């Protein structure tokens, strides 16, 4: 058993906007690149050019089809596709830490980041079993557990320009769907986003108290909901055929600045 | 800190050095920071200062490190030793390779330059490769636009001087309603994602019109799951509604478009349907101040949209009246198009109302005075904050050109082009069709071609036809079959060369074009054509030279391979002479430079052309004494002069008083200047010139200063395209250059000077009840233009491509997970795995394009998913239309531009037993790999 800190000074984490994520996987590969070259062992790939390529990733994007309920129009609402990026959520009550038999997994007191000390990790995989989110992967070459570090080697790194002291996935996201900050600070950008957009915990029923939050997609397909009148009414015709149209045109041009009257 | 919390170094060294260059993982051309450790590539991220990507980078870009180390990289020049297609080669030296090429090409140039067909695929150096081809003297040169998006590009240029992507972009900072049509999850990769992020952050809305709700359409606030090939019908219905309701920007239409130009309506005139012109050839409008005819560009002229001109008993009306006739036609009413588009009439009407509301009730006013080309001072810039984007989706149909024209016309009638919140051009665009070169095909044995190959025809006289009416070009571009084929027709080259129609060629020379696989229609037949022999046992296409960096399927079909470098090992220029990286607010160009040196015996293709060009004595490639003019491509980039003061790169040129930008003499330190500046040059458009670019004196003056053109070139947008009408007049019997009889009706029907919609051409030749399902393909975002299948990281994301089937078809056939289907078209049959997708048009199936690979290619294992269940739809798409029984070969292309009609495909679906070996059909024998196979394990850490 490994102990969690009773409290952390900050709660650094990600806020991921599911309304904006286009599912491009930029974050996945940027993460793979940075973390292959940096913290701990490289993220390896087995059978990279063969029939079953499988490597270690700290961040993956899954796509889910969602069938919304009937909108009351008599026809079913169109199905939707949700792109869902997933990585470690740096939980306050991280079961992956408490289950660790060697103390390799830990949650940092100063910022709440959950990390694996690879030199102490025996690759037993208990943490991956305990994590309800499937956020940990065992690197098959190195035999250690790998997980999102929130780019702990970037966010404080004095060798990087200040603007780049952010996780690789956040820096690279083309749609701006990923945000990084201190969720313990109610005035932070990320806390404000969560408040404004109804940011949600992933699977709160698991009691893990995740730090990362997801911003839900905004309602879609308004034009198919008869009952919601947020759109303009149909256009009023000025003419149904060319002759009538030219009559309207006369009047319309006269009414323009510089027209007749 | 608890005692068991380890001490971390949170400031480790990031890299030894950052080298800034330009990405080439797709065609988007973002700026990248390549972090180097121990002289190797350690990490790639976006360059924050770069105009295209502003720091972000997509999955492809970050995966570039796996491209530079890809096992599929070619290692040395190769000479074929086995039969074509086998993949059996021997490595040879560069001297031998270049000697072979010279021995083959020099005699052709002396006697029959046209017997060289030189086609470059995903080439980003077309202003250079076309110069080489021009020097060689062959008329047979183009890149891949003909099978990509020429409908969009050409429709944009003919209608308003540019389309999207390199030509223009939505005003992301101001737009309030963004419409995205069709497959566009490809071009302009990062800017579109950034733009969508921006409009979502502002709470603006986005609407997707696409049969497939993936990618960008998945985040659209509203989705129109349209039936393929009917986008034009939907757009025409929107225009119909806007006309019917008078929701039009009349002031904009009158001042800045040819809606106010007067049409010759004398049915007896050989100018019927053309614009009335003055003695200087300028189109005429009626000036509101006088009620008289006046040239469109006269100082102070106030064009009138309504007044007509009566002469000799004939009333000549402004274009706008013809537009009303066309667009108010009840055939375009929402109720009339609902069934065919699959979009209920109420939704079409709502969308039209939405467009009108945002454009006119939510107009944007920027307090910034500007002066138009007639000298009129405007005290404000008025924006219609509706914007659009579309590329290949609506383009790749045989009605694509007119559909794209309709889309541009929709933007124009709303006054939403080059106004705040609408669509904005990227310098050096806008550039109207008449300011582009015309096509050239004048061959002189031993000498250069008489001008640039590709261009914008203005009428029948500009077509590339011999006196007997036969085609000058091997691809039959610029003929009556497809008169405005501005990008050539790469997809017809092999088929025509094999058929000897219009003539036989000797050498097919290709670059970065996987024509033996995913870049061809009718792939199996193309492979057969490449290997087919005549009675004497000689190959019907006698010689094939190919350049690629990787072991693609096409390599096996070449006789001589000139191996290219990867993009991090070479010089390149992304030039204003070509397709630059500009943004709406800035002109910009960029370079690549070798951030690492090749570790193999490979050379940048353009440097090889400098060498080969000199060996062949091509004009522009040799000095007066016959010696090689450019040592390599870097030398060319620095020292080539296109016209006085203008070279491939606009930054850091040499003026009389030192460094200057835009115009100037060559500067030997230019590439170093680019490298020091992060690999690019950029200059901002002045504020007063930011909008109304075609009409704005401040912009025109700035464009001249920058060297885009040599005098101001204002023009009107042209919802009415006269060059199309000139073709129709010929079809009506006017003029010297006449279409052949069998094409007369097609020219009349499709080359309408105002946008129209007609059903995809193959529909009338196909039993649409049997082939009742539309079939599409698209590249995934993480792989578009990325040669990504060989990429160890990207193929873990997109390594499989089932056929996605909508719920109705899924249930009709009783499909279950793991099932397979036999998919048949009039052209062929495939057997492939299926998967259910609900967010899909009811009558459409689709798959990821170019995931399927041939065994032996790309250094993949023969059992790789790409080569087993992976498949191509290409086998179902013929490059020709089904036989009409007239003995003709009708190309499966847009009749105006020749764009390959990939997305007109119709299929029949049947459930079938899964093959025991889970191998998709057709299956092909493995090619021998010239590079061997990749490693079993990767753990790629270059630093210690």
Automatic annotation (TrEMBL), chain A:
Record keyword 4Fe-4S present: yes
Example of a GO MF term: 4 iron, 4 sulfur cluster binding
One family name in Pfam for this protein: Fer4_11
Entry keywords, A to Z: 4Fe-4S, Iron, Iron-sulfur, Metal-binding
Keyword Transcription: no
Domain 4Fe-4S ferredoxin-type: 12-42, 78-111, 112-141
InterPro entries referenced in this protein's UniProt entry, alphabetically: 4Fe4S_Fe-S-bd, 4Fe4S_Fe_S_CS, ET_IronSulfur_Cluster-Binding
Protein name (Swiss-Prot/TrEMBL): (Fe-S)-binding protein
TrEMBL record, chain B:
Region (Disordered): 429-452, 911-944
The organism of origin for this protein: Thalassorhabdomicrobium marinisediminis
Subcellular localization: Cell envelope
MF annotations from Gene Ontology: 4 iron, 4 sulfur cluster binding; metal ion binding; oxidoreductase activity
Co-factor(s): [4Fe-4S] cluster
Biased composition (Basic and acidic residues): 911-921
Major localization listed first in the record, in broad terms: other
Gene Ontology CC terms: cell envelope
Similarity annotation: Belongs to the prokaryotic molybdopterin-containing oxidoreductase family.
Pfam families, alphabetized: Molybdop_Fe4S4, Molybdopterin
Name recorded for this polypeptide: Formate dehydrogenase
Keywords: 4Fe-4S, Iron, Iron-sulfur, Metal-binding, Oxidoreductase
InterPro entries: Asp_de-COase-like_dom_sf, Mopterin_OxRdtase, Mopterin_OxRdtase_4Fe-4S_dom
Residue stretches making up the 4Fe-4S Mo/W bis-MGD-type domain: 16-72
